[in-house]
Amino acid sequence: MLTLILNVLWFILGGWAMGLMWWLAGIVMFITIIGIPWGSACFRIGLLAFWPFGRTVVHRGNLGQQDMGTGAAGFLGNVIWFVLAGIWLAIGHLLEAIALAITIIGIPFAFQHLKLARITLAPIGTAIVDTDVWEQIRLKG
Predict the structure, then answer these.
(1) Full-model pTM
(2) Domain residues of the chain, as ranges?
(3) CA atoms within 13 A on the CB side of 120
(4) Residues with Cβ < 8 Å from 49, sequence gap 6 or more?
(5) How remote is the C-alpha of 15 from its chain's centroid?
(6) Which of 68, 87, 123, 140 is the most exposed place for a label (fewest CB within 10 A)?
(7) Where are the transmembrane segments (predicted)?
(8) Dihedrals φ, ψ of 57, to 5°?
(9) 10-residue stretch averages of pLDDT, the chain, 141 residues long
(10) CA atoms of 43 and 39, how far apart (whole Å)
């Protein structure tokens, strides 16, 4: 129930705008054709930006998924992303996290900005899963 309340507060206080901005970036990436891998990542990050509480970011290799995004091509894609957009988006999320962490009420939201900053740096080859599911996978593996 707490996760739902935090997600609703997040959404009302700006999460909807962040998610829409990520989706807009995804549309732009898809238009360029060559940016489709980054566009897919933008849509995934956009969903996380809408409802970040109760979800976590993991490398797809940790889920047993091996594909182009988890290998050398994914690494190259992340380097290109990092230089062109990732570093700047991460800095924005970090600044938001610092501003929110100053207030006691904003601390949970600051942690979500840090989670978004982390995936912003290298989105290719990652998956967003429910935190409970990830804990079960970690305990089994």
Answers:
(1) 0.80
(2) 2-140
(3) 23
(4) 15, 18, 19, 21, 22, 116
(5) 12
(6) 140
(7) 27-51, 72-91, 97-114
(8) -105, 130
(9) 91 86 90 88 91 90 77 88 87 89 90 90 89 84 64
(10) 6
Which residues lie closer than 8 Å to 75 by C-beta, 6 or more apart?
125
Which two tokens mark 112? 């979500």
What's the token pair of residue 4? 């739902």
